[in-house]
Design a protein that fits this description.
With about 200 residues, this protein is an alpha/beta fold. It is built from seven helices and nine strands, in the order βαβαβαβββαβαβαβα. It folds into two domains: about 35 residues, no CATH class; about 130 residues, Rossmann fold (3-Layer(aba) Sandwich). The strands form three sheets. The protein has a five-stranded mixed β-sheet, with helices on both faces. Strands 1-2 form a two-stranded parallel ribbon. The relative contact order is 0.13. The structure holds NADP nicotinamide-adenine-dinucleotide phosphate (NAP).
Length: about 200
């Protein structure tokens, strides 16, 4: 796996930090700039929302034919409230898709609580809503989700659904503040064979 960054030194520091934290996991991480990261088979864009499309545009050529996963949420903290914003094209994921038209963009991972996601030893019981205009992008993203214990990928339709998926993150954050918890999304009524 390649950790990309605007600075290769920062990427190297991030790799070192992760390997130090999880020595027993024998992680094979490589540090690179964003261009190197864009050469990976599947690319996850995990920048602040207002940098996602710009970052993707800077390496768009390299992303042609690739699965690109957008996980950013366009939010603003206004006083004590989190409020959803409307980015260009209606969602961060749609903006990312327009910045790299040759890529196959999927939107996913928006609702996972940050602390739990950052802790490899904490299982997260959650559904991951995945939407895309490309079947391959959904399938590859779903495979990635399934590598994480207790996560279940759900096909949430086309990329036009990225807007409500991203926006509802504001609601989750608000609930976390109100109830001093780290809520995740688990939908009832959907039974999948073997899950
Ligand atoms: N944290 C989570 O578990 C989680 C869960 C669900 C969704 N998300 C979404 O995923 C995204 C990343 O979350 P995060 O907590 O990792 O964010 P973050 O720490 O604020 O940013 C991640 C990285 O983005 C790069 N970056 C920052 N500003 C940039 C800019 N102006 N242009 C280009 N790159 C920039 C930085 O890397 P370099 O300086 O090394 O380039 C930074 O380390 C967010 O949009 C968030 O809403 C996060």
């Amino acid at each position: 796996m390649v950790i990309g960054s605007r600075s290769k030194e920062r990427a190297a520091e991030a790799c070192e930090e992760i390997c130090k934290r999880w020595p027993e996991r024998d992680l094979t991480l490589e540090a690179g700039d964003n261009s190197r990261a864009a050469a990976a088979e599947i690319v996850i864009v995990a920048t602040p929302w207002d940098a996602a499309a710009l970052t993707v545009a800077s390496v768009a050529q390299r992303l042609t034919g690739k699965v690109v996963i957008s996980m950013a949420n366009a939010l603003a903290k206004v006083g004590d409230e989190f409020e959803p914003l409307v980015p260009p094209r209606g969602s961060v994921a749609a903006h990312v898709q327009s910045a790299a038209p040759g890529a196959m963009v999927a939107a996913a991972f928006h609702h996972l609580p940050a602390k739990a996601l950052a802790n490899l030893n904490t299982p997260i019981d959650a559904d991951v809503l995945v939407c895309s205009d490309h079947v391959t992008a959904f399938e590859r993203t779903a495979e990635l989700v399934e590598l994480i214990p207790n996560l279940r990928p759900l096909n949430a339709g086309s990329l036009s659904n990225a807007a409500p998926i991203e926006a509802v993150t504001a609601v989750l954050l608000q609930l976390n503040v109100r109830y001093k918890t780290r809520a995740a999304v688990r939908l009832t009524g959907i039974e999948l064979p073997g899950k």
